[in-house]
Amino acid sequence: MSCAAGCKPADAPAASADGTRDKAGGPTIALMPKSKGNGYFVAAKRGAEDAASELGVKLLFDGPTEPDPARQNEIVETWITRGVDAIAVACENREAVSSSLRKARARGIKVVTYDADALPDARDFFVNQATPEGIGNALVDEAARLLGGRGRYAVITGSLTAGNMIEWQKAIERRNADRHPGLQRIALRPCDDLKDRAFAETTAILNAHPDVGLIMAICSPAVPGAAEAVKQAGKAGKVRVIGLGLPGENRRYLHEGVTDTVILWKVKDLGYLAVQAAHACLEGRLRAGATRHDGGRLGEVRVADGQILLGEPFLFTRANVDQFDF
Amino acid sequence: MSTDLRRARPVALVLGVLAVILAVTAPGFFSRAQLAPFLAGTAPVLVVACGMAVLMVTREVDVSVGSQFALCSVLLGLLLGEGCPPALGIPAAVAAGALLGAVNGALAAGLRLPGLVVTLGTLAIGREALRWAREGRFVQDLPPSVQWLGLGQSLGQWALALAALAVATAVSLGLQGLMAGRWVHAAGSDPAAAATVGVPVRRVTFGAFTLLGALTGLAAALNVARFTDVDPKTGAGLEMQVIAAALIGGVSIEGGRGGILGVSLGVLLLAALSPALVFLGIPPEWERVLQGAIVLASVAGGTRRAPGRPTP
Amino acid sequence: MRRPGIPAPSRETLLAALLIVEGAVFSVTGHGFASLDNVLGLARLACEGGLLALALAPVVLAGGIDLSLGSLLGLSSVVLGLLWRDAGWPWPWAAAGAVACGALGGLVNAVAVARLRANPLIVTLGTLSLFRGLAEALTRGVDTVTGFPAAFLSLGQGALAGGVPVQAPLLAAALAGSWLLVHRHRCGREWRAIGFSAEGALHAGVPVGRRRLQAHLLAGVAAGVAAVVQVSRVGQAKADAGTGMELLAVTAVVLGGTHLSGGQGSIAGTFLGFAVLAVLRNGLQLSDQPAELAGILTGVVLLGVLVLGARRGGQRG
């Protein structure tokens, strides 16, 4: 059976049918995305695979097929039964996963969160790529820079109920009010995480609000969708496009000058660091109160308050996008 | 044609009201810049809905069209990316769709299994297999000759809309004029009676599934032609959109009745809802409420229109 | 389609055999599959879906369908959360409110189907959007209610004596109750009669409208109860709760041998069908297989069982 989604083929699974951990190889670390089939988390998984092969760890990668906190909770429960050594989760909703993560910790499983945190008592460490504030600030500051501090913008989000996007929207609104009163958000539209729908929504916004100066797409399929709409409307350069997305999906539009900036951290490093941190917890190299963590190929990274900091969001532009392979 | 018109009246009325509201408060909706991409984007949905209407007239339903649409889109994208010319790739997508439809048809008509359940199974298989294989990766950077079928944007947009209109007209004429069309109606209104007068009911059903698959493949090609990338999640929720469009367009879920005119208006109404909310400045959280209300209203309209009909 | 030869096994036997095969395979491939912990955990996790499937069975038996149950679960969850947090109701009242909301939603379906005689597929396709839309509108989609009191959370997360989750007796009660109703009570006989032929049933003096109403109402109540169970298990109330669960329930019911045209089917079959799906998902994950494979195999199992069952004469009346 091939196993394209990244789990290592279970070569000798019969070793531990009683629920004890298989110590034959290295430890088993289970990595959960918010949802599968999402390019962002696939990039994180590629980084995690690098770390797993460096450290001799067996990596499991699974999650809900659609972002679903109840299902995340269920998968953690099943991993507890399965007997993994460490779990790294990108939490769709902090309360929803925390109850099962606490249970995992009580059973001696190390718990790391990445991308989005659980409640602090439900995990050992949070690999923090950027806070919602960091993301919101970067987006609004970039919008203000492109619009010269004054203008109207519209936001395309994934779905109205996606937890992280709700956080980002709030952060965007706060930054907008605090620092850039000249900016005005005139529309917020969901695109169901579909590129084609983001295209249709952006087209409608461009025509309904001819004075819109910038489209801000905060889910990754929406960025190329919005860019294509602006391009087809013949408004490239006149209406700016920025967003949170993967550099690879936006390379063409960045080079064509349709999309100005794609904001993201180095997702591969995020997955890499999550597995690194989980492994260090297992080996006792990383304990509560630590201020430094050996991040393998990333060198030493800062730890504060139970949070391992990956660094600030990164701005991908036409100038640097070709340096990245995700 | 007159029954077709009568059946389309309620949905035409709602669409008309929406159009008047938009014309008064947001005339920009009818600008070329909005209308052309809107119609081009709705064209693929209309093509699928025509196939769905035919299938529903035979008293069957297919909830797997969304995953068929995605599979055909990705297949076409990969073929084009490998340098296959669109003149070969598009027929291949249509053939792939027809094959997927034929599998559903063989299970449903050949083994007499309920189509809803069969396609619930093939929906899951197709969608999950695609997610497994692609992991959400776009098929990127299709050759420039692909977009708008090489016709350029403004011409291409109208070409897509006209292609869908041509399909709708052909299906409509076929349903009314051809022997096959009469068979479809006969098989749907009373399969047992149809069989006794020599209508090959099971072959008609199989054919309707296959036709729907082929049209879904064609729709995928029309959709791919609008862009330069293929999103493997494309078509998620398409099944509900086209089934709802068929229902509010006057196609009977009990088979036997339905016309393409109503279905086309139903497609337009549901597709227009979301951009209309943008133009009217209505918050997006009301969108689903409105969708549900439109479907329920069509139910109420439907029961009033046929009071004597027993609904067992 | 009558073919001579070996008689095909009944659906229940087929599913039981499938369940045994799953058990045997996953005991070998799954880490910790054959442990008491896992069995108890399964009862906890599967409860909500099981409730919906068991409540859907009578609706389908009577020739109907309900696609709105997942959305109704979401709406009831939101109602629970808002009643507790914003209206300040104590949690037992808020939970009762959620069940009432489920009942009300079921009543909407019931009235449209039983009184207005509208087609249940269309009605519940409409309410599928409507209920989810109302849940989103009530919370603007973004509002998530969390921080429920521990006593409430222990309903979903706690355990009775011996580590048995609270969900286990609830699911058992639902199983027993629906079995009694469908197989030992006049209701069940009449649902079946309606499914076979509504007109015939009417002539035989069956209160067709009332029975249909009851089936939809019951399904709504089950969605409300499932909402309480899920909110207390997960600890949050949000508008997207239960997305897609209607399809899981329909799949389980059909897999269990209930004919979509109505008339035939059993509670045992429904429960076994649901168990086959739940064990498949659990076992595959414990065998380190990705979630996509579980989705694919769900489709394959559904088609496979249908094809095997087709030897018995197909599903059409």
What can you see in these coordinates?
The complex is a heterotrimer of chains A (326), B (312) and C (317). Chain A has two domains: 13-129 and 266-311, Rossmann fold (3-Layer(aba) Sandwich); 132-264, 3-Layer(aba) Sandwich (Rossmann fold). Chain A is built from nine helices and 14 strands. Chain A has helices at 39-55, 69-82, 94-106, 132-147, 163-179, 195-208, 222-232, 247-256, 267-283; strands spanning 28-32, 58-61, 86-89, 110-114, 125-128, 151-157, 183-190, 212-217, 240-244, 259-264, 292-294, 300-304, 307-309, 314-316. In chain A, α3 links the parallel β3 and β4. Mean pLDDT of chain A is 88; it is low at 1-23. Chain B has a single domain (2-304), classed as Orthogonal Bundle (ABC transporter involved in vitamin B12 uptake, BtuC), CATH 1.10.3470. Chain B has twelve helices and no strands. The longest helix of chain B is centred in the first third of the chain and has 26 residues, at 32-57. Chain B is globular. The two termini of chain B are 28 Å apart. Chain C is an all-alpha fold and 317 residues long. Chain C is globular, with a radius of gyration of 20 Å. Chain C starts with 10 loop residues before the first helix and ends in a 7-residue tail after the last helix. The model of chain C is unreliable at 313-317 (pLDDT under 50). Chains B and C meet through α5, α10 and α12 of B and α5, α11 and α13 of C.
Draw up the topology in text.
The complex is a heterotrimer of chains A (326), B (312) and C (317).
Chain A: E1 28-32, H1 39-55, E2 58-61, H2 69-82, E3 86-89, H3 94-106, E4 110-114, E5 125-128, H4 132-147, E6 151-157, H5 163-179, E7 183-190, H6 195-208, E8 212-217, H7 222-232, E9 240-244, H8 247-256, E10 259-264, H9 267-283, E11 292-294, E12 300-304, E13 307-309, E14 314-316
Parallel strand pairs in A: 1-2, 1-3, 3-4, 4-5, 5-13, 6-7, 6-8, 8-9, 9-10
Antiparallel strand pairs in A: 10-14, 11-12, 12-13
Helix pairs in contact in A: 1-9, 2-3, 4-5, 6-7
Chain B: H1 2-25, H2 32-57, H3 65-81, H4 86-110, H5 115-134, H6 153-177, H7 179-189, H8 191-196, H9 201-224, H10 238-248, H11 260-280, H12 287-305
Chain C: H1 11-29, H2 36-61, H3 69-85, H4 91-115, H5 120-139, E1 145-146, H6 150-157, H7 167-183, H8 186-196, H9 198-203, H10 208-234, E2 236-237, H11 245-255, H12 267-286, H13 291-310
Antiparallel strand pairs in C: 1-2
Helix pairs in contact in C: 1-12, 2-7, 2-8, 2-10, 2-11, 2-12, 3-4, 3-5, 3-10, 4-5, 4-10, 6-10, 7-8, 8-10, 11-12, 12-13
